[in-house]
Write a structure and sequence with these properties.
By secondary structure, this protein is mostly beta strands. It is built from one helix and eight strands. The chain has one domain.
Length: 131
């Protein structure tokens, strides 16, 4: 599967239509947002679907110019994540969509060497925080 760089090809992400209506077209690529400003990992009990403990990630990523910040909630995460905590920089964010019906539908990876990012999640929701 080839990675999807362009946001408007991922209509099943919760909040993507609102996000795209607020962003300029020049920012429709996931790899525009290459800095992690906040990162929260937690294990929670899923009482709606799996009735088991799942891992979630909430992160805020931004563009290099510090003009746009996105909040992403990634649900039911499995895989590995490692990045330089000095600056939170990563480049080349890629999200694969394996389609509905998959236990973990989305795969996150990075096409650059500055981050070890390779994990799956069941659901993604996005929100524009600023401006």
């Amino acid at each position: 599967m080839n990675g999807i760089y362009v946001m408007d090809q991922m209509k099943d992400i919760e909040g993507i239509d609102i996000l795209l209506s607020k962003l300029p077209e020049s920012c429709y690529r996931w790899d525009t947002f290459n800095f992690i400003d906040e990162f929260k990992y937690q294990t929670v009990f899923d009482d709606t679907d799996k009735y088991d403990y799942i891992n979630n990630i909430e992160m805020v990523i931004r563009d290099e110019q510090k003009k746009y910040w996105l909040k992403m909630l990634l649900t039911d995460v499995s895989g590995r994540i490692s990045f330089d905590t000095l600056n939170g920089f990563f480049h080349g964010l890629v999200i694969d969509d394996y389609g509905p019906g998959q236990e973990r539908r989305y795969k996150f990876s990075c096409c650059e060497m500055d981050i070890d990012l390779y994990f799956y999640c069941a659901k993604i929701s996005v929100e524009l925080l600023y401006p």
